[in-house]
Amino acid sequence: MGASFALALRANGYAGRLIGISRSAETLRKAQARDLVDIVSSELSHAGEADVVVLCTPVRTLITQIGQLANLCRPGAIITDMGSTKTEVVRAMDALPAHLRAVGSHPMCGKETAGIDAADASLYRGAPWLLTRTRRSDDEALSIVRALAERVGATPREIGVEHHDALLAFASHLPYALAVALVTATDQFSLNQPEVWQVMAGGFRDTSRVAASDVTMWLDILLTNADAVLGAVRDFQFTLDQFTALLERRDEEGLRAFLAAAAQARKTHFR
Amino acid sequence: MGASFALALRANGYAGRLIGISRSAETLRKAQARDLVDIVSSELSHAGEADVVVLCTPVRTLITQIGQLANLCRPGAIITDMGSTKTEVVRAMDALPAHLRAVGSHPMCGKETAGIDAADASLYRGAPWLLTRTRRSDDEALSIVRALAERVGATPREIGVEHHDALLAFASHLPYALAVALVTATDQFSLNQPEVWQVMAGGFRDTSRVAASDVTMWLDILLTNADAVLGAVRDFQFTLDQFTALLERRDEEGLRAFLAAAAQARKTHFR
């Protein structure tokens, strides 16, 4: 996410100085070789030079880093992030000293492949970019983060922090849980029926795609939004039970209405 | 499926005469205007002229049509189909008179959009095409259907009928059920939280895609493979319960192992 952001800023004419910080020497070497940023560093302390710090690590890592930045950033600096859950992130931002500013931020894009080798200047184009106010947000900080989002082609949208996590539990975390469980159940089934992997077509491929995503990123998302995710899974199980009951009864008209309503909703909300 | 098959046969140099049969006058008019086939007809009885009849209707419709073809086809004619379930189709083929031949057939491709307007000459390219023997199959009939599949770029593969339906319950019908239940649960949630549809990204889009597919086609698939689908859904629910239990306990290491195994399986079986 960070390398793509640097690429996208440069591709869209951003003239400011970019500092790339990573623990990985290989990532830093590649960033330098490809001229992705002006300065590379393995030390978070380099963030002390920045006007805006964009944390692109997994959610629980970035929460730790917010605490570390409290003693590193200069007065007036803006800390923001790219985490997919916001409640715990914003709580950490709220606790920052009053001379720092912070805006919760969530660009809604990604790939199954993470890391600098998958960097893509067009990753953010057309993506929703959700912004959440914190106790350390002022209007200027919000408009600066908003402008960065617009610079890379995303569409910023402000949203309350709890609202964010409740919506994302359905829009993103539940689909991931289903993809993981689908692959796991099929993998179990394949112990006796290995040919199942040879008869795969587009439906399974698409439905399971997100299960291949970065595990540490998702572990942090699930653990920082567990209650909302568990609620969404329960709602889903209730709905799946309705489907099962219709099929068990061979209730043709009920099943047709159930499938038709879902097809209609999918077509209405996605082009 | 039928219009795409005609297009694909022509695009790949098939020189035989093509007869297109549909109940829809509009489909026939379009087929004629686009020169998709040599002859158009609204009457199934025209299939009596064919050496090979390819039924591309929903599964329960094509089962009825197999019965009708018993009195229409000429001796030695080969009846095949494109249905996504095989047990009930093959049962109908088994009951055909001994002067007819029949091969169960399932090209594993498709789109959310059905009908002649979505016809696509490349639809079958690279797709697995499953073939099932019936009591009315001989080696010549099998090799003729196999050659048609290869002609349009698909990869034919023979499979037993019950095996087919058990595998497809996981590989195709379960993902559809999950997509439908995901959209339905989210649609219910959106009654109180309509903004959920505004924060959608790639994960939900992909996981739910197949829910937009043709309802009549899927209703027939589910009703002709109900027991295997119900079994796959039960296996899935058991797996989802394991996920839920790990998340409820905030079992970080257990959850990490669960997610990592799914990511590994997904990456192993899909490029």
From TrEMBL, chains A, B:
Key words of the record: Oxidoreductase
Alphabetized GO MF terms: NAD+ binding; prephenate dehydrogenase (NAD+) activity; prephenate dehydrogenase (NADP+) activity
Matches recorded under SUPFAM superfamilies: 6-phosphogluconate dehydrogenase C-terminal domain-like, NAD(P)-binding Rossmann-fold domains
A Pfam match: PDH_C
Domain Prephenate/arogenate dehydrogenase: 1-271
GO biological process: tyrosine biosynthetic process
Keyword Oxidoreductase: yes
Protein family according to the UniProt entry: Belongs to the prephenate/arogenate dehydrogenase family.
Protein name: Prephenate dehydrogenase/arogenate dehydrogenase family protein
Native organism: Candidatus Thermofonsia Clade 3 bacterium
Lineage: Bacteria, Bacillati, Chloroflexota, Candidatus Thermofontia, Candidatus Thermofonsia Clade 3
